[in-house]
Design a protein that fits this description.
alpha+beta, NADH Oxidase, 4 strands, 38% helix
Length: 174
């Protein structure tokens, strides 16, 4: 898939089949995130590939509670896998680095025929003592900020259509 085609055709997917993507695909998506540009070349981002259903459920509950939604709401839209992006707070550009990694990963998922969606509230989840304990149990040492969850899976339903692009968003200063 050509990069511009991928950019123009990628959409956030909010409905997934229960079958998880292949491990190799998740590894490729994570690698795309690691190749994102990073401020001063500090490479502050870590990516945690999560396929463990119990951990996904724990994160789903936290995320829903932080969002203030009822139990019927699934903020992860049934996605069977996710790539959690965290970034080292000591890097002055750690949030931007994480955002660039997320963009690369969503494009990579699309190029592999998978759906993805950026899910917020990772910062609030991993600023808690319980969130820090989860990171420590996964072997993460240091002071990291949760940037976002990149949920991933096989889309269940038609591909979302693009909204028209708003005019007047490119300006020239010649």
């Amino acid at each position: 898939m050509e990069v511009f085609d991928a950019i123009r055709s990628r959409r956030s997917v909010r409905r997934y089949k229960p079958e998880p993507p292949p491990r190799e695909a998740l590894e490729q998506i994570a690698e795309a995130g690691l190749w994102a540009a990073s401020g001063k070349g500090l490479q502050s981002v870590k990516i945690i590939i999560i396929t463990n259903p119990e951990l996904i459920e724990k994160l789903r509950v936290w995320n829903r509670e932080i969002g203030g939604w009822p139990e019927s709401v699934d903020p992860f839209y049934g996605a069977p896998a996710q790539l959690l992006v965290i970034s080292d707070k000591s890097s002055p550009n750690h949030v931007y680095d994480g955002a660039l990694a997320m963009g690369n990963m969503m494009l990579a998922a699309h190029a592999l025929g998978l759906g993805s969606c950026w899910i917020n509230r990772a910062r609030q989840e991993f600023d808690t003592a319980e969130g820090k304990a989860v990171l420590a149990a996964l072997g993460v040492e240091g002071d990291f900020e949760g940037i976002a969850h990149c949920i991933v899976g096989w889309p269940d339903g038609p591909e979302p259509k693009a909204a028209p692009r708003s005019p007047g968003r490119v300006l020239w200063a010649e």
